[in-house]
Structures are given as C-alpha cells and as structure tokens.
Amino acid sequence: MSDIRGKPGGTGRDLQQVNEKLRELISSLRTEKERLSESRHSASTPAPVPAAAEPSPPAAVDLEKKRLAAELALAREAVEHATAERARLRDRLAEIEAEHQRVSDDYVAVEERHSELAQLFVALERIHGAPTRAEVLTALQEIVINVVGTEELALLEVRDGKLVLAHAFGVAPGPLREIALGQGAIGRTARTGRLYVAGRDGSPDEADRDLTACIPLRVGDRVTAVLAIFRLLGHKPGLGESDQAVFDLLSAHAGLALHLRAQAERAGAAS
C-alpha cells in the first residue's frame, strides 16, 4: 500500500478511491456468488425423463389372449355355419330345379297327350260321322296320312276265306288284290288278329320289306279287314306310343263303321 503520509492533501481522495474499489469488488463477489448458487441449483435438479409405458402384467396378457381366441372360435363357427347353409341352399336349389324340370316335362307330356286325344276324337268323329262307306274309307285314309304319317296304305277285307283289296293309296294295287289268310304279314294279321309292327317280331320277309304296320279291323271279336301301312314319310323316323293309340282306335272303330255302312248300303239297294 502507498504511504499516504508523504503526500499532503491527497489523503481524502485516496480513501475515496479505495472505498469505491472495495464496493466494486464486493458487488462483483456477490454477483459471482449468486451465479454459482444458481448453477448449483440447476445441476441439483434432474431433467424430466419421459415416463416409460408400464409393462402389462401377465394376467392381463393371458386375458387378452383368451378373448381373442374366443372371438376366433366364434368367427370359425360362423364361417362353418355359413358354408353349411350355402351347401344346403345349393342342394335345395338343385331339388327345385329338378322339380321344375319334372313339372315342365309332365306339362309337355300332358300337352302332347291332350293333342293326341284331340286327334283321336277328331278321327273317331270322322269315322263314325261319315254317311257312306266311301266316305269312311276317305276319312280313314286322311287319318293315316295326317296322324300316322304315311302316304302309302291299303285296306283289305276278309271275303270268302281270303283277303281282297278294297282301297289303296300310294301303292301298286296289283300284288295286293288277293292275299290268302296267313300269307305274309298281312295274311297273318288277318288270321291271328294281332297287330304287326315291322322289326318288333323279328326281321320281315322279303315281300313285306316295305310294310311298317298291319292293323286288324274288328267287328266285335271277328277280324273283318286289315289296314296295311307301308313306308312312313321322311319327317317321321318310326312309330311311337301315340301311333299305338291311333291303331287301337282304328282297330275298334274303323271296321265297325265300314261294316255298318256296308249293311246300310245293302239294305238301301235291296229296298
């Protein structure tokens, strides 16, 4: 420290300067103390750490697994039920379609049968409504052409123990003018009274190769004539059940109609 005694008049100023420096030092020390205090406080307070998710306890995990397993089982059961229901509906649909097809087939069969019955009714009416024998023969010819489907036919009547040609259409009459009973398919039909259909009773004879059917015409139990049907038209490949019904009708009614008209004509001629 400077010797203030050797300097008269400067003592007051020196003390003032010393005091100011002491104040500045004390103020600086206080500031530094506050700064250090704040630093220690910041260092002692830890920074906030994000909270970690608490691990689920084992019981909660097991419970969630059981819940998911139950939902999966229900879903599988629903899928199985839906699959079974779809299969059931598919089977039911197949049954309905089969039933629809059966009903449709039955309807078509009924319609065909109705048409056949209508044809038979018209044929029966034509046969019994014809006033003369010639018109009965004409009606018989039209029935065979339009219903059976042939334009080749002949009607032979039993006279004096043999068959005599009474009417022919579309065939040469020469070989058919007289046929003995039992000769060929036509003669056998007259003798036995049984319907002949080509191919049903074995291979036909050479003389009968063009024959399709021979129908016995009856009056009661007696065969009075034979209707011979030859080749069918091109659109008809063969005979069917409906043709059998027509043959039965002709067998029962055509012979009777011819017989009655012949009797009436003979009675008219006699009178």
From TrEMBL:
Biased composition (Low complexity): 42-54
Positions with biased composition (Basic and acidic residues): 29-41
Keyword Glycosyltransferase attributed: no
Region feature (Disordered): 29-58
InterPro entries according to UniProt: GAF, GAF-like_dom_sf
Span of domain GAF: 133-259
Residue runs in coiled coils: 65-113
Keywords for the protein's UniProt record, in alphabetical order: Coiled coil
Pfam family, one: GAF_2
The protein, known as: GAF domain protein
